[in-house]
Amino acid sequence: MSVAKSVDESAQGVADAALRIEAISARAVVAPLVRPIRTAVGHVPNAPLVLIDVRATDGVVGRSYIFAYAPLALRPLVQLINELGASLVGKTVAPARLMEEFNRRFRLLGWQGLVGMAVSGLDMAFWDALARARNAPLVCLLGGEPRALPAYDSYGLVDVTADLPAIARSVESGFAAIKIKIGDGDLANDAAIVAEVRQAIGTDVALMVDFNQSLDPVEARRRIARLAAFDLHWVEEPVEHEDLHGHARVRATSPVPIQTGENWWFPRDMEKSIAAGASDYAMLDVMKIGGVTGWMRGAALAHAHALPVSSHLWPELSAQLLCATPTAHWLEYAEWWNPILREPLVIERGMARVADSPGTGVAWNDAALARFAA
């Protein structure tokens, strides 16, 4: 089965088996972070998550989770998903068809923000259910097969004293790439931190930097010109993500490839970014691009434009999606939500090992969920 056909045909193929939705439930947890996330535009001390369970016929359960970013978003997300779920009972688990139904339902409201997160989370759980019903890894339903993928270890803002030993351990464990966040100070501060990290990891390890949308185009061009001396693999989101022309202006003179995409809402945002020439690479976030269905449509766009695709978070699911993405590039590894998972993604010598177990790789650590319930 080709990747281009896999999304709609796979959904229809299992629909023929009459897998139907019996119940959908959502619940909130707040998971601790081993490394709290510090960025130039805000800090995240823990991970507010919404867990989704889709119960289908024959005892099949599909699971997914979404990252609410802030605890205040947990309650509305849980309510939205539960009410949406009640309206879907009895329908066939056919993600492509359900995505079109969501599109019609939210056409006037729009489906960025909480609506987009809910829709994507449900789509992820639908695909997990389909894969489990087939007793196969998700990647096999998408026309690919499990394989090893290169991963980079993802860090936040770096405290040189506290974080350099951990970064050195990441490299010693086999990671061939490290990403750090910068942009919370002036250019001299950024240059000093990048210099320290580059010295710590050596010249053979790729180094990515993420500004988290903290600059304007003029300042971004100035800083990138200075930081290019440290052999950067990419510069991520130097300006506000929706400023496509600003990204294009930065890219036009940048000696370092520009990465963006984690804030594209559904494939149409991606299409607009490609048309504007906003980046050299694409970074898909499965929660914002439209779940598995949206990712595969985005992967087809990237393939058509020869755009290398990396992932943003959701490592266990993103690894399977990258295995079915023709222009797969890097997997972002972050252990943020490992505490809630029964079997987190395995990284060996810097490579993600996609298991051949059924589904997307999401299974709950029930004991942990009881402790972290919000």
Question: Quick gist of this model?
Answer:
This protein has 374 residues and is α/β, with parallel strands linked by helices.
Descriptive overview:
This protein is of the alpha/beta class. The chain has two domains: 3-135, Enolase-like, domain 1 (2-Layer Sandwich); 140-365, Alpha-Beta Barrel (TIM Barrel). 41% of the residues lie in helices and 23% in strands. The protein has helices spanning 3-15, 74-88, 95-105, 113-133, 138-141, 160-172, 187-201, 217-227, 244-253, 266-276, 291-304, 315-323, 366-372, and strands spanning 21-39, 42-56, 61-67, 148-157, 177-181, 206-210, 232-236, 258-260, 281-284, 309-311, 331-333, 346-348, 351-353. The strands form two sheets. Strands 4, 5, 6, 7, 8, 9, 10, 11, 12 and 13 form a ten-stranded mixed sheet that branches. Helix 1 (3-15) packs antiparallel against helix 11 and helix 3 (95-105) packs antiparallel against helix 4. It is globular and about 60 Å long. The relative contact order is 0.15.
